[in-house]
Amino acid sequence: MPNTNVTIDELKAKAKELRANIVETTFSATSGHIGGSLSAADMLVALYFKYLNVDPSDPDKYDRDRFVMSKGHCALGYVPCLAMRGYLDIEEVKAKFNKTGSAYGMHPDSKKIRGCDASTGSLGHGLPMGVGMLLGLKLKNMDSKVVVMTGDGECQEGSNWEAAMAAAHYKLGNLIWIIDRNKLEIDGPTEEVLGLEPLADKVKAFGFKVIECKGNDMEDVDRALAEAWANDSDTPVCIISHTMKGIGVEHYQGKVTSHYISFGDSRKDIEPILEYIKNTDVATIK
Ligand SMILES: Cc1ncc(C[n+]2csc(CCOP(=O)(O)OP(=O)(O)O)c2C)c(N)n1
What pTM, to 2 d.p., does this model score? Predict the structure, then answer.
């Protein structure tokens, strides 16, 4: 059951904190996939602080909900979020992210990171893994949710569509597939590289119930997740979360160059960015 004690304002504050942690981690790591980490930040916070049935003191809790960060290059957003939720030490994550010998590589490793359910990074594998997890849970008569977040560029991988077909066929009503629809991938706009539209119709045609939301507007994120969590049918759910890549880093947001940023050597370089994050409601950014 979602934690109804947490307020939208608290979630918004957590999302600001996560954005600041993403920027600080990038600075310490010297570079990283910041664009897709920032676009997904509000959704990650709402999942981890309100919706997912998880317990940081017992990461392998048998009846927990599972989360698969299929767009594993965005470990830069996912791992600090796990730390903020209590699985890891945020200062250690900031200091060690992507450093030689560290548990926190540029892509998440479930064998090394507390609370991480799946190792990802090779795009197009998270949804198939999520479908497999849910088939296993079904065999055990468990009713845990499995939530998978993919990128939109990632949807160009055919394996997603095989998994989607299987999810509907096997009536996996506890599957929630979140597409972070920031409209940009590594090489440019998705619609120029390999068009996805009409994406909602395609996903519906594969047998999903589709919910769309403004993914950088916490109230709308909350509405979409509440609707997804209330699904008690056999129909899997897909949330198409319309977001902006790089949101929160003023000079990069909405630009393809936000995909991977390298900050300078001086902490002074990130101070204006942290100020901007502190003072800006991302839901108002056009
Ligand atoms: C199978 C595979 N091919 C290529 C890559 C390299 N790669 C990393 S990120 C990325 C772009 C992903 O775009 P999108 O899914 O839209 O992610 P986002 O914009 O949310 O960062 C690519 C091609 C990869 N990680 N895995």
Answer: 0.98
